[in-house]
Predict the structure.
Amino acid sequence: MDSQINAAARLLATGDPLGALQRVALRSDAPALALRGTAMAQLGDLRAAAELLTRAHATFETDEALSRARCVLALAEVALALRDFSFEPARLQDAAATLKQHGDHNNALLAELLNARRRLLLGDIAGALSATHNLRFNGAPEALIGLTRLIQAQIAIRQIRGAEAELRLSEASAHSKASGIAALSLEIQRALSVLHSPAGRLVEAETQREVTLTQVEQLFQEPALLVDACRRQLRHAGMVINLSRRPILFSLLLHLAKSVDRTATRTDLVQEVFGSALMNDSYRARLRVEVGRLRKLLAPIATVTATAEGFKLEPHDTSLAVRVLLPPLWGSHPDILALLSDGQTWSASAIANALGKSQRSVQRALAQLAKQADVVPEGVGPARRWVSASLAPIATALLLPLHRD
Amino acid sequence: MKNPTTPPSESLKAEPTITTVDVPIHQELGPFKGAKKALGVSVAGDAIWYATGDSIVSLNPSEGTPRQRLDVKADAGTAFDGTYLYQLTDATIQKIDPETGEVLSRIPAPAEGRDSGMAWAEGSLWVGEYRAGKIHRIDPKTGKVLAVIHSDRFVTGVAWHQGELWHGAHHGERSELCRIEQDGRVQERLRLPEGITVAGVDIDAHGHFLCGGGDSGKIRIVKRPGER
């Protein structure tokens, strides 16, 4: 391009977006608009960045395909930071193809990484995996390799593979240091502190202790009966039974497993499972029905014995440990808080998208969380967004959905 | 000298149209470590100097390897008057002693930073203005604009060789090398292969084009058609 644009780009590359803006603030030709947009994004004003980049895209001539593709790439990156999932993946794919065609392999690689990030945020772990598979790094800058390793670490965390996550993060760290990009190093540091935070609380034989992700990974492989209250699953001998769609049954299992000697009174069970302080024949009958269902489910592994006071969970193998894995936070809507712990602002629809829930249920949950001062709203009406009130990073691996159904 | 400010459209009416000739890349040099870009290019005696953004690097032409590095910011065109280097940096042109790397003086760039390629000839600097498709002829001491040439393309590199004025061009996603008269009439057009960017141009003693490859960091050598 021209000397001033190149000077501004040079300043951007050394992490001086204000210096870059000073060079081109008064210009409204296409390359200057693109540069101003990129600088604004680096300065954190994402809305201004989106507006400038959109103008740049429209101002470039139709045959300046490479420049336009780079604008689309920047717009996709800004949309992701804004947690705007309405940005069509097809637009980014087209831009990636154009970038490859014109030999801009570094930006083509960045497009693939953005695709992977978007899928990860939406809980599409398989999609994120395939997007980071077979990437080529010929002469790619350290920052891009570092970002790839970070995303691979984040995927490993969602897959509860703690050892792999550690490895990827240490690789990411090395590349990030070499790149000298502070924002990337910060994100990696954050991911490391999340990895080392308690991912859950383990309850076994009346004791409770915090466990890290790596320890959870280990637990999943051990021969015990594990009741996972984070994902509402039952694990035994490598087998996983998903009870997220059977909340009553799960609740019954959970409370039996948590109780002393795995015995709970009928009154306690009716309270915990049906939410009623009242005990009558109707509840007694309902409880019997649910216990029957639970017996059927557990038949190969354990049985549920009736006692004078209540019910007891008894594994066939009396030496088998029974463990309960609780979320690291025990409060309302830990999955929403987990999502917001990335420090970005999210709209209710984006949260609904990422968790696979209805927007109405998310809005109800947000209202409750706002009352508890766990989240803070910004803006009004359709522009309303939500942000976590807490700055502490939360170990989110067990709280976020593993796949989309 | 003809009036250099005649717009090309009028003078082209009586002229036969020229054909565009596709030319291959003869050789590529680089990219070299620490030189991520190749913006301006200038042949200076037995060295090829080129602007890398953060510095100006000289190559040993027979070996095609880096020889010297000047710690001067270099954003676009590079020129040589036989003794000194001239370098476009931001919205200025810096005069540099290639032996020491010292910046001796500065003048404002004629297009206030919208400048691209640069060449030295006949006591003047000839500076391209990218999107306006112009070449400014300026006084190297004061920066005063002496004449303006209008081309019909975006102007990237600028080069003079044996009385001929050439400029790098960008048109319809392809890069070209165009020979023009000072009244803007195009005499020859060479089109480079797809995906090749030309940021700066100069011509060596053999008449070969040396093209700075922009973000690729490469220097590409192109021969005129019909040459061995």
Q: What stands out?
A: Residues 162-179 of chain A form the longest helix (18 residues).
